[in-house]
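Bumping with the actual sequence this time:
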Amino acid sequence: MTTTIYQNDAHILMGISMQDDTKLERNNMALHVCEDPQNVLANREHLAQTLGHSLKDFVCANQTHSANFYKVTAADKGRGALTAEDAIPETDALYTFEPNIVLSSFTADCVPILFYATDSALVGAIHSGWQGTVKEISLKTFTHLRDVEGVDLTNVHVHIGTALSQEKFEVDRDVYDRFKALGYADDFMYFKPETSKYHIDNQLTVKKQCELAGIPATNIVIEDVCTFKNEAGFSYRQNKQAGRHLSFIVRK
């Protein structure tokens, strides 16, 4: 399946593109890691058509494993969709209150987070690799939405998507120490004596950050699909030349 749809109702369309051996570059969606940009644009165009949108409706960021977020408006439509040069710079979280804007996030092991409110027009997309998680990008984004934008987080729903599983996310002590320093990730880590490696559940750590901001646990869904173990997953850890998934969300 080229595209996995998480939700498609009267208000919200969201999902993720998957690896597909029948597509160009296995359906890679990222311009910053590709053999030929035209292949990626062809894949993106196919996705846009599948969603009933134009690529000019998409907004993409130049992701840098930051904790930076950006409020998207209609004036941003098309940024990063056809070329990386005009993508939102140095940003890993996008949100908007306007309809018909397809917010995008690119991942290959990192955690993609899609969210929307049921009492306002808010939708958003966050890219949280382990560096973004220890910088608390999700917590900071939702805290901003609560304190600055006046969002009632009890009405926000979150989908934590396809990512590297805890089993495959093994790290050394330095990364463990950074998660440990968060003060709330202990339950999401274990040590494997046979390999002297630590294993971290990045998805559950992100879920905890959403809860700490004020989102009810019952409003959070975690997709149990590992990018490393699933043949439809792009995994940078497995293959440094891997393409990227595109997670998307749009309010109709």
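The tokens above came from a reply further down the thread. Residues 37-51 form the longest helix (15 residues).
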